[in-house]
From TrEMBL, chains A, B:
Organism: Denticeps clupeoides (denticle herring)
Cited Pfam families: BcrAD_BadFG
Signal peptide (residue range): none
InterPro entries found in the cross-reference section: ATPase_BadF, ATPase_NBD, NAGK-like
Start and end residues of each ATPase BadF/BadG/BcrA/BcrD type domain: 5-235
Protein name: N-acetyl-D-glucosamine kinase
Gene name tied to this protein: NAGK
Class of this enzyme: transferase
Gene3D superfamilies xref list: 3.30.420.40
EC number from the UniProt entry: 2.7.1.59
PANTHER family, sorted: BADF TYPE ATPASE DOMAIN-CONTAINING PROTEIN, N-ACETYL-D-GLUCOSAMINE KINASE
Length: 326, 326
């Protein structure tokens, strides 16, 4: 039975973020994926699931989530008896641990959520590119482009030579001057394409370009600052595990951890020094399983069932830091 | 005749920014306004003007301007024999002076242009809200909203209490929490509406709110930084007039000059101290005539004619600063 926490079947499908594709398309895609998965698992597609737990990016706003659930219930009565929707951050955390921790997402955008052992949550960021997205791929790309504009304008002196970044910008965006960038900011703005420039900057940083390295160091600082922002609300037991504070890192920018490491560790060391004495150490980990697993667990929990997960098998610890001067 | 520089007739009409309304609508609006003005001035609407000089916001990009002019020539052969389009900044400067100066626009967005006595130009800013717009109404509104978000997130401590700004934000945008702001940043984003929040912040600053005052001081610094950015390219004679460096201030944010004054004057004093010794003083002025006048003058100039303007009557000096310790 499902209460062993075994994966019976998996499938994937297109984007379900209702902010991006609309509610109609979102619920159709979800229904299609679940019905295909039932068949794969040898279940009757006409029998509703007991509970469908989902971890969705864009699963933040109560009213919108309520609407999504109502829509699914009305349009697809054979889909599931009950529904539970969590954000991607919460779903990821639930996949990694039963005792909470901090999840820091840095993909196209950025976001941070503290999940306490008692289930209470505190967030920092996640408001999108107009209100920050600090430390994300969008932010890194934006910082680089802005440095080129500010240098050409003589408005702000660049912290390092802009030659590599300017050339990379012209290549990536296929422009020959700054004016050519305007459609990329406005008429044809696509956040994911703009953020994709980050990959070229990671290459530059790895090849030794000082401006690229500087921006990634700043990104590391800002991602750590998200953690420091929620730290005062963390319950004591989060600090007492053998791994120290568990920090789950999601999103492609974490692939550039080595470039962000110095900035990231510096900010956490400062936080430790400035009063967070119970921060004896921390561990950074990534998921090696889908965060849908945690979403399913929370869905089961919502109807009083328990899905036991093998948390250790779900995560991969890639960095451990212990403050030895405690 | 027109070479006296007398205004024969004036009219107005809707937005002509081709980036906003499209080329078709832009040229139709221009044609309609000019034809109405010909009739008002007692001229035959079927006789083309000798030259139509225009000062247009969005008149920056050569290719786009060329397209606009071709379109007008083809669709409206009775409009004018020749065309000359300058940006709003250049048109404003041409209205204020024949010897150049620096124009700093701070309205919804911000922009700065140095026009040298020999006609050469150097710009700083003007790239829109995605790439700065520092010191503009958009920027001021954004700084205020961002301070509220950062404070609620515990991400960045606000420089001053956010109570007034938070309340003003909730009133202006008609929201009850931060989540409610998201449509104002994304789905329903309207730059001019977002920037309109600046008026409430000016009210707050005038009533003594420290956070509002702080943001306006920063805006003053950043507008002055635009000037410092172009200063190295300014020709000597710009500094030698009796008014000192002439700075033409355009846009509604300059109505809050008293709120920006301390930041603005501080940055120029620093520039003076740090090496711009020939900056013996400066004068801030606004236009009391339309910048279309300067656009017309440049249009006449373009066909070898001279439109003499009474520059002193076109401007109003509202602040003079002289560095006495030279």
């Amino acid at each position: 039975t499902a209460t062993t926490g075994k994966i019976l079947a998996q499938t994937d499908g297109p984007c379900t973020n209702h902010w991006l594709v609309g509610v109609d398309k979102s619920v159709e895609t979800i229904n299609d994926m679940v019905q295909r998965t039932k068949v794969k698992a040898g279940l009757d597609p006409d029998t509703p699931l007991h509970s469908l737990g989902m971890s969705l990016s864009g699963g933040d706003q109560k009213d919108a989530i309520q609407k999504l659930i109502e829509e699914m219930g009305q349009r697809f009565p054979k889909l599931s008896q009950s529904y539970f929707i969590s954000t991607d951050a919460i779903g990821a955390m639930a996949t990694a641990s039963d005792c909470g921790g901090i999840v820091v997402i840095s993909g196209t955008g950025s976001n941070c959520k503290l999940v306490n052992p008692d289930g209470s949550q505190v967030g920092c960021g996640g408001w999108g590119h107009m209100m920050g997205d600090e430390g994300s791929a969008f932010w890194i790309s934006h910082q680089a482009v802005k440095a080129v504009f500010d240098a050409k304008d003589n408005f702000v002196p660049p912290p390092h030579d802009i030659t590599y970044v300017k050339k990379a910008m012209e290549d990536y965006f296929q422009v020959s001057d700054l004016m050519g960038m305007l459609p990329h900011f406005y008429r044809n703005f696509q956040k994911s394409h703009f953020a994709g420039f980050c990959r070229k900057l990671a290459e530059g940083a790895s090849a030794g370009d000082a401006l690229c390295q500087h921006i990634f160091t700043q990104a590391g600082k800002l991602l750590a600052k998200h953690i420091v922002a929620v730290l005062p609300q963390a319950q004591q037991t989060l600090f007492s595990g053998e791994l120290g504070l568990p920090i789950l890192c999601e999103g492609a920018v974490w692939g550039s951890w080595e470039l962000m490491k110095s900035g990231f560790t510096e900010v956490l060391a400062e936080a430790k020094a400035s009063g967070f004495h119970h921060l004896r150490g921390y561990s950074l980990m990534t998921l090696c399983k889908s965060s849908a697993l945690g979403g399913a667990k929370l869905g089961a929990q919502n109807v009083g069932a328990v899905l036991p997960l093998d948390y250790q098998a779900n995560v991969n610890v890639f960095y451990r830091h212990s403050f030895t001067n405690q």
